[in-house]
Structure formats: structure tokens, C-alpha cells
Amino acid sequence: MTQFVPRDPDFDARVRTSFARQRLMQTLGVRLLRVAPGECDMEMPFAAAFTQQHGFLHAGTLTSVVDSACGYAALSLMAPGAAVMSVEFKVNLMAPAAGERLLARGRVVRSGRTLTIVAGEGFMCSGDDERHVFTMLGTMMAVEGRAGIAD
User: Fold this and answer.
1) CB 84 within 8 A of CB 140
2) Largest CA distance in the chain
3) Distance between CA 56 and CA 23 in Å, rounded?
4) Do the beta carbons of residue 22 and residue 83 sit within 8 Å?
5) What's the half-sphere exposure (Cβ side, CA atoms, 13 Å) at 49?
6) Contacts for 6 with CB less than 8 Å, ≥ 6 apart
7) Which residue from 6, 28, 55, 99 lies 20 to 30 Å from 143 (Cα-Cα)?
8) Coil, helix or strand at residue 86
9) Which tens digits make up the pLDDT trace of 86-137?
10) How far apart, in whole angstroms, are the C-alpha atoms of residue 105 and residue 50?
11) The pTM is what?
12) What domains appear along the chain, each with residue ranges and CATH number?
């Protein structure tokens, strides 16, 4: 696994401050579990309010949480003052998202000055059992000097 060196020594506080402003993650009940250089883990309890017609977590819910984990993994390596935005991503839904909670893991594959390639995984957990249900490959962009966009 690649060891990344953050450009911002205060990356942890910066990620946590930004996450605290994410209203969607608050609505979904997502908790930030772990931040490390190039890595971010989040957890969301299962809630029927965010399911599709068969009672599984909706693909949009899964995508939102894993996208945020990937974005914060990318932000952890960006220069001080840079903000992060998703540029593109591709997802694979591999199994129905049923369980007690969603565990989202975002990891940086390659960190560039402007573009960062990320990989995300979603696991539905019940007790100690984890079932891999979702993968994402995406690109995040560092945004600097744009009015209204801050880290």
C-alpha cells in the first residue's frame, strides 16, 4: 500500500471541520470514523428512510456516503486552502445493501496537484460480519481561489 505524505500538517482538523458542514451526511446520520493521509472511513446506521422499494439502502445513498469518504481521503492530501470536488466516478453495486450499518472506505490511489484518483468500497455490516456490496473508482479535483468554494 502506498504511504502518502500530506501537504497540510493540519489535514485531520481540516477534514473534520469540512465534514461537520456536510448537511447531507448529517441527515443520513453518517459518522466520520477515521482520517489518515489518503484514507477516510465513515459509518452510517441502516435507516428505512433511505431505502429503495425492496428495503435495501438506495444506490444514491450508498454513492453519496462512499463519494464523501473518497473526497475526504483526497482532501487529506491536498494543499492547505484547497477544497475538493468530485469530477467523475463509476460505481458497481455488487449485492443488496442490507444490514445494520454501512461502512464506507475511501482510499487515494494516486494524488496529483489538481486531480486525485480514488477508490471506494462499501460494506454492509451486521455484528462483526462485513459484506462487500459496493465499489467506486473516481476522480477528485483540488479547487483553489474560487469564490464560494472553501475547504
Assistant:
1) yes
2) 45
3) 22
4) no
5) 6
6) 37, 76, 77
7) 28
8) strand
9) 999 999 999 999 999 999 999 999 999 999 999 999 999 999 999 999 999 9
10) 19
11) 0.95
12) 11-143 (3.10.129.10)
